[in-house]
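User: Predict Segregation and condensation protein B's structure from this.
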Amino acid sequence: MNISSVLESLLFVSGDGVTISQLAEILELSADDVLGQIAELKTFYETNRRGITVVQYDEYVQLKTVEENFGYVNRLAESKKKLPLSPAALEVLSIVAYHQPVTRSSIEFIRGVNSDGPMGKLLERGLIEENGRLDAPGRPILYVTTKEFLRSFGIRSLADLPDTETLEEAVSQPQQEDLEETAQ
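Assistant:
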């Protein structure tokens, strides 16, 4: 086993970081050995002028972009915000808009599939936000739309949203036209 390679993979997938003790347990090493491996990895990145580095915050360790690349990373993040929303994200957004405040499990029940990805994108873009917790077992997080949602869709308030009957008619209209064209 190449410990340096495994350590790098663990840090990469951990996102916000992982504790030294977690790494020690997973790698079956002592905390001191893990710290030594982290120091070697950091030296490798610095010596080879890589675009990432290893940083430690108390007990947590994570990969981080080197400072001189922040501007480029920010440009990428901003350009991703301009991409259109996926159909799944639009579906989740409409569920939140019409059922808010709503829990993730309610959204997933309505959709019938896991909604982690679309919800993450909507949170990242600031179109939905956490708004307290439901007073129920597990105290699930409640989600609502934001002012950014209103601004992005050009509406002043949630009262400006079309009612669900109007939406159902709009959705069924093209289907009816398709059926009529097929019959001709």
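The beta strands are 18-19, 52-57, 60-65, 102-103, 128-133, 141-145.
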